[in-house]
Amino acid sequence: MVGHGDIRVVHRGGSKINSRQPVITQDSRFLLCASGECVKVFSTSTEECVHDLRGHTDAVTGVLLKPSNHLQAYSCSADGTVRLWDFTEGIHIKTYVIGYPVYSIYASAHHGGVIFVVTPMLNDKRSEVFQLVAVHLPQSGDQLVEALELSAVISDVSSNPAANCFGKGGEFIASAKGLHLEVFFFKKQKSYRFSLKEDNKKGGKNTFMCVACHQKEDCIATGHEDGKIRLWRNFNHKKEYTYSTLHWHHSAVSSLCFTPEGTNLLSGGLESVLVQWRYNQESQRDFLPRLGSAITHIAVSPDGALFCTSHSDNKITIIQSSVKVSAVIQGLVKGESVRTDLMVDPRSKSLVLNGKPGQLQFYSLQRDKLLYNLDIVQQEYIHESGLEQFEVVKAAFDASGSWMATVEERNQKAAELELNLKLWAFDEQTQSFVLNTTISTPHEARITDMCFCHAADSQTTMLVSTSKDGHFKAWQLSAAAHTEDEGPSWSCDFVGAYHSLVPERCCFSADGSLLAVSFQEVVTVWSPASWELLTTLSQPPQAIRDLCFGRLSCSKYLLGTTASKLLCCWNLLTCSLEWSTTMDVSLLLADPLTENMAAFCFQAGGTDLFVFKPSEPRPLFSHKAVCSGKVTRAIFSPREEMLESCEESSQWLNRSQLHFLTQYMDLMTFTTKAEEDRLLASSRQLVVDDSVAMTPFYLLLGKHRQQETEDAVSSSLSSDTVPQSSAAIKQLLQTPAHVMPSTSYLCSMFVQSLLISVTDTREENKHAEEKMDSEREEEDSEEEMEPSNPRPQQASEACSLTKAQLRELRRVRKQDHSWSAGFL
Amino acid sequence: MASFKPTKIQVYPKLGEKVTQDTLYWKNYKAPLHIKEFGAITNIDFSPVAPHNFAVTAFTRIHIYGPFSQEPVKSFTRFKDTAYCGRFRSDGQLLVAGCEDSVVRLFDVSGKVALRMFKGHTKAVHVTDFISDRYQILTGSDDYTCRLWDLPNATELNTYQEHTDYIRCGVASKLNRDLFITGSYDHTLKLFDARVDKSVMTMDHGQPVESLLLYPSEGLLVSAGGRYVKVWDLLKGGQPLVSLKNHHKTVTSLCLSSSGQRLLSASLDRHVKVYNTTNYKVVHNFDYAASILSLALAPDDESIVVGMTNSILSVKHRKSLEDSKEISGQQRRRPLYRVFVKGKNPVPKQDDYLVSKPVKQHLAKYDKQLKKFNVTKALDTALETWTRHRKPEITVAVMKELDRRGTLKNALAGRDEQALARLLNFLIGNVVDPRFAPVLVIAAEMILDIYRSVIGQSPVVDRQLLRLQELLEKEIDFQQDLLEVMGMLDTMFASSFPRMEVPCPGISRANGLAGGDGITSRPQIQAT
């Protein structure tokens, strides 16, 4: 066994941003939201993440603006601390240690120096009973302060942050739990309790879901499980309280919010419709329908100009008060399960998986950003629980990324299975996939596997799908038969079966000359050119679970795993079993760039990883207990730049990265020590400008400042932050302005170079780049500039030219401007 | 906020032949005019000069028809026996015809009695034609000879005895006064040169040759015989270019369209096929009631004349421009262009503040109702008479959408007698359509569930339910028959495919699954 070395399993991006209510800052420029173990600061106008406020060691459970200073924010976490941040600079100011896990945080401007937190009952940490505690924050200059002065306000509260709310002028706090509403008045130190009956006549459930308080009047709005909203008044009396009921939602109201002036009440729930009620004129309502998915939280900016809604699909929508969507911040969508495999789009190198219902999401791993959602089903989504919806169950890309195949199915109880196979062509113009062919009911039963022929040089593209109906079908692109106005479309080329067994897996060899289809315990090998059955391989007694061809030098090997905990490797030249071992492999996958294969083995509640080459049954690398539970989805994704690691155990990570999904849908990956160090170095940099996105213009500015103080430290921030950092742009940014062509001449070329060009021009670019590279090699290595390093420096005047600068200037003057042709 | 996604209407592939430029051209003829002749029509020839009368040879007569007349403008009846091959001279003044009695007769088109009689053949003369110098004629006969005659003094100029069987077709060159080609039942085509007294080129067709055609350029020759149509390149010494086998009976007649781009062939199998002369693919097909013996096309393709064995002459005239205009006039008049662009293209001034107006999404009426969750109304809209009859796929798509939303039952319930009758009518019309069956069967089951309690209250509904039941029973029987046929075909296919041995390693042989014979079936074309 090879040791772990310095390879670690880490979480990789895609954390939730919808777990808690987001906060909009006083000036409406930033949005703060809790995301895993950090607080993310987004710009409300550009949707970019400006800062990650890191420091907590457990999930962040609440974010709150400091009432006395609107440039600072509190965050609380389950690690038992409350931290104070300067969110515009991204600086951590103070840590208050509470000592108990904190589940939500409240504060009011009228209670200076006190914050209110919800913690478990003091006496035992594990209990399910929570209480609201007032914490007096000690005035101290230290970074780390222990807050010891705790006093319980209300015992037995809900841990849901939406269930507590401060009232008008901080006079009272309302707290709802189950069927009770409790209002605590600070002046009188007295609480009133109101209860509702469990069910009303019509069987609607009266459980409280959320509470909101009017900031100018004595009024509490509560949302209920049956979709009703109650407005409570006159609640400072035990008996004479009144309430009125508003009803529009058909299922539970999950969030309520008053606007700061109190003129409007916003509500949302499963219907994904934001409802705006006029206060005191409740019959007038405004709706903002089709927000995508269920609303979980609603927040309003302090000036009332912006609303924002969090959605169950890990999305935050920013809405102007004229009820118009202005921005959408989308995180990685996590459903209960990923029905499609994890895939890598060969063009954008992004991770592709199930996202919103009926859609595929393209998620950039490098930038931790959702690129786009592709609507596969193309039907109006009806938000109703218990409705059978179309789901994308399979997807596949061809080698060049110009074709994508998707399968969607809808399984009704009574009726037959509805299946659609769709083939999508990549459109260069719009840079997205466009539907080419829809095949309804491609098979009579569920499709078990689907794969494209991977040969890059083959003339025809071929797709093979296997189904529970006992057949596998080959689909081929063919030109339209008669008329010229239709483009080519896909049609069935071949239907194959073997002894009426059910095919489970299919796999093409690396050169596309062989197709392996597993029929229960038999692997059949076919020739796609003639559709002849070439040979059969089998290893009884159990059915084949996974099938995989080796790559590159190992392409003569076919690997299969069986349900009887066997990993077999057949040599296709001799048609015999090369080797086999006993291990319960839950997932077997091949790295497309190297010969390596990864096998995830399920053992005693945990999963182990083995990386090996098919040519030898000895693992290159193994990692015990990668995570708990079974790993069923994983993918090798190519790296943008190769890693240079000499250690034998980590060499398999040089060209590609291994990502996998755990049982709890967390996206994890393996990193080496060197990689982590590099990441840390790049994250240490300060970010200057508020919401300036990372653009080449920004880099131009940063570069300019940096040039003035020659700093030898060149932190190697990878160029992936720059949208397109071709050598031509580098050259443009390095060349002094007076030797360049006129701005009007350059501008259009520059803008064009930022667009994603069509392939042929890209090739041209490549040529130009190559030319420049050779040019640059001739230059002396004096000017080692990292142009993509966005580190701004203090401006210290350096009027006289240094020697190096002089030399550079001379060199630049000698250069011709042929590189600028690279923009075209 | 995403916009409403309209209901997806499934597009079904149109069955039947694809509409191409050729089908449009060849379909643009009026309904055929049928004229009864006295016997099988063996030859049709158009006069080369306007008004392009045509001579029809049938039994013992030759009739000349005007371009639009239904009655013959002229007839020649002085034949003792069956007449053959009435052909015009290039000036349209003279007509020559052979006869079963071996005499060749020459007529003046305006006269009645034969101007000349050419006697010399010993058997029936099936081939006659004018040589391009206009003063000689060519004849071919069942006595295996073909002869050249001089017109002014009716003497025989030359005799060629090279064929070994009946000569049934021949054509004289229009560009060269010395060349002519004959085709015979001895399977050969011979090119003769009057200057050398013998054939200069022989081509083997492989079948008894029935018809010959020279291209206007006279570089290519088309011959028909048996089921084959063959094209020969004369400039390359009679090299065969293509062999076409698109008919399933003997091809009897050939003809070229006025542009020379299309070749037409007529056959005893009652079809006329139109070929593209660049790639020799069939681009169009005409059907006729009986076996075709002769075919001719008027200059400019103004009419297609076909003569059949049942002695019926079919004349199809081209639709004139006014006719096609009439059709376009029937189309709905759209608003003027000016109305459309009104107010759409003002140019903003420099300091104008632009307020973007959201683009309004156009939705069909049923989509608007679906958007508001008015399910019953949406179904009513989709069941409107026009939609129901002309575009049943829309109605079915709305039903499918309602079913997906789980509200189909609500939409179907609560209907009065009239509305229910309309719904049942639609079901009866479409439930057995394989494209719609999966959705409509669900709807039918729901209707039966909902209205079970009121069965027997309305005679109209009851009658329709009985019809529906009858229809379904019939369909079930039909499907059963189809399955039986499938079973029969499967056994035939299985026996016709050779069983192949597949090499397999020893391991797989051990578990009893060895000797894998992959069962392969034919690819089935899916609707896309």
UniProtKB/TrEMBL annotation, chain A:
Give GO cellular component annotations, separated by semicolons: small-subunit processome
Where are the annotated segments for Disordered?
761-804
- The residues bearing each WD repeat, given as ranges, are 53-95, 246-287
Residues covered by the C2H2-type domain: 33-56
Which residue positions does the secretion signal occupy? none
Main subcellular location of this protein, as a coarse class: nucleus
Regions of biased composition (Basic and acidic residues) lie at 761-774
Q: Which GO terms describe its biological process?
A: positive regulation of rRNA processing; positive regulation of transcription by RNA polymerase I; rRNA processing
Record's keyword terms, sorted: Nucleus, Repeat, Ribosome biogenesis, rRNA processing, Transcription, WD repeat
| Bias-annotated ranges (Acidic residues) | 775-786
Which GO terms fall under molecular function for this chain's record? RNA binding
Which SMART domains does the record associate with it? WD40
Manganese among keywords: no
Q: Name one Pfam family in it.
A: Beta-prop_WDR75_2nd
Q: Where in the cell is it found?
A: Nucleus, Nucleolus
Mark out the compositionally biased spans (Polar residues).
791-803
Domain of life the protein comes from: Eukaryota
Entry-linked PANTHER family:
WD REPEAT-CONTAINING PROTEIN 75
Provide the protein name.
WD repeat-containing protein 75
Q: Which organism is it from?
A: Gymnodraco acuticeps
Gene that this sequence comes from: wdr75
UniProtKB/TrEMBL annotation, chain B:
Q: Where is the U3 small nucleolar RNA-associated protein 15 C-terminal domain?
A: 347-491
Sorted alphabetically, which InterPro entries does this protein's record hold? U3_snoRNA-assocProt_15_C (IPR018983), WD40/YVTN_repeat-like_dom_sf (IPR015943), WD40_repeat_CS (IPR019775), WD40_repeat_dom_sf (IPR036322), WD40_rpt (IPR001680)
SUPFAM superfamilies given in the database record? WD40 repeat-like
Q: Where are the WD repeats?
A: 118-159, 244-285
The reply to whether Nucleus figures as a keyword in the UniProt entry is: yes
Q: What are the BP-aspect GO terms?
A: positive regulation of transcription by RNA polymerase I; rRNA processing
* Cellular component terms per the entry's GO annotation: nucleolus
Compartmental location: Nucleus, Nucleolus
> Keyword set for this entry?
Nucleus, Repeat, rRNA processing, WD repeat
This chain's function reads: Ribosome biogenesis factor. Involved in nucleolar processing of pre-18S ribosomal RNA. Required for optimal pre-ribosomal RNA transcription by RNA polymerase I. Part of the small subunit (SSU) processome, first precursor of the small eukaryotic ribosomal subunit. During the assembly of the SSU processome in the nucleolus, many ribosome biogenesis factors, an RNA chaperone and ribosomal proteins associate with the nascent pre-rRNA and work in concert to generate RNA folding, modifications, rearrangements and cleavage as well as targeted degradation of pre-ribosomal RNA by the RNA exosome.
Instruction: Relate the assembly described in the record.
Output: Part of the small subunit (SSU) processome, composed of more than 70 proteins and the RNA chaperone small nucleolar RNA (snoRNA) U3. May be a component of the proposed t-UTP subcomplex of the ribosomal small subunit (SSU) processome.
Q: Which PANTHER family match?
A: U3 SMALL NUCLEOLAR RNA-ASSOCIATED PROTEIN 15 HOMOLOG (PTHR19924:SF26), UTP15 U3 SMALL NUCLEOLAR RNA-ASSOCIATED PROTEIN 15 FAMILY MEMBER (PTHR19924)
Q: What is this protein called?
A: U3 small nucleolar RNA-associated protein 15 homolog
What's the source species' lineage? Answer: Eukaryota, Metazoa, Chordata, Craniata, Vertebrata
Gene field = utp15
